[in-house]
Amino acid sequence: MKRKAWDVYSEVLKAARDLGLEVEEQEVAKALLAWPKERFHVFAARMGLKEKYLRHDLLPVAFLPEPLLEALQRGLPLREAHRLHRLLKGGKLSLQDLKGKDPKALMALPARPGEVDFRLPVWFFPPEPWEEALPLAVAQALIQLYTKEGELVLDPMAGRGTVVEVARALGRRAWGGDIAPRGPLVELTDIRDLPQRFRKEAALVVLHPPTFPAWLKEEGQREEAEERYGEYIRHISSFLDLCRPALALGGRLVLVARPRRTLTSKDLEAGHDFFLAPWERALAEADFRPLRYHLAVSQDGRQDWHLFVGEPRR
Fold first, then answer.
1. Does the predicted model carry a pTM greater than 0.70?
2. How many other CB atoms sit within 10 Å of the CB of residue 110?
3. Where in the numbering of this chain does the DNA methylase N-4/N-6 domain appear (predicted)?
């Protein structure tokens, strides 16, 4: 099992102090780095480390700021600690950006500005490998548009936890839950528990329900797909009802949709359920007032995300 960089660093400090370097960490590191090349080589070999790694990666840990030292102890990869330190020295991050954040949130820094231009009618974002997960740039845009630092963001169908990760990186409080969590920041829980967990606290709730094909597969195809589409929309409306009690006064809900791109002959004959209309109807049935609509498309044109923003009618 691979050891954490912090554990290896601690072992190096202990070994150096056993050799008589009974001084503060930075002084220990300075003393080791000042050793003649041959002596340093012997010490590195004794620790089972490559000389270059010890000199250029591990000993510089002594000069990292306190938030990064704390994050290293909690498992932040060493390369990430040095990357963040370079950004800090270059003025692209501040110590405040680093304080109180867990390793996963730190790894999401810096929030990448410019990936989504809010002025455009379509948000273009870089392609990402996980097609079922809300793209990082889109999550960032939503959080920046609809929340302020310190406010609470909830994602009750969080999946990998992208919304939680980005929200924390941007200085918001955030919580994510899922019945099948796929990320370390996501709690195993059902959306039906949401009204008991949070009452009028959230500035933003991001709801990303399963797509119709995914839901149909989970439920079992007992009837023709088109016969069940109305039931699917009612299912989404029930999720919206569960989110309402968690929203603070003035809070917003974002309904994330991946609608169908084609319609069947039955759709055309019946004259209903055209593309985005069912999602708008789901919001209305749950008594949400529609506020805005955003369309996000990947730069390669292969993914499209439809984002309906609403607020509860009071």
1. no
2. 13
3. 133-180
* Residue type (1 letter), 144: Q
Residue pair 153/147 in contact (Cβ under 8 Å)? The answer is yes
List where CATH 3.40.50.150 sits in the chain: 122-312
What angle is formed at CA 104 by the lines to CA 103 and CA 108, rounded to 5 degrees? 110
In order along its 314 residues, the chain shows pLDDT tens digits of: 467 889 999 999 999 899 888 778 899 999 999 999 999 999 999 999 999 999 999 999 999 999 999 999 988 889 889 989 988 888 878 888 888 877 877 876 765 544 666 667 888 887 776 667 888 889 989 999 999 999 999 999 998 899 999 999 999 999 999 998 888 899 999 999 999 999 999 999 999 988 777 777 776 655 555 566 677 778 888 899 999 999 999 999 999 988 766 666 766 666 555 556 677 778 877 888 889 999 988 877 788 899 999 999 87
Q: Are 227 and 236 in contact (CB under 8 A)?
A: no
With left for phi above 0 and alpha for psi between -120 and 50, is residue 200 left, alpha or beta? Answer: left
Contact at 8 Å (CB) between 212 and 229?
yes
Phi-psi label, residue 91: left if phi above 0, alpha if psi -120 to 50, beta otherwise? left
- Joined tokens for residue 36: 């003649």
Burial of 162: CB neighbours in 10 Å, binned 0-12, 13-18, 19+: buried
Q: What are phi and psi of 109, to 5 degrees?
A: -80, 155
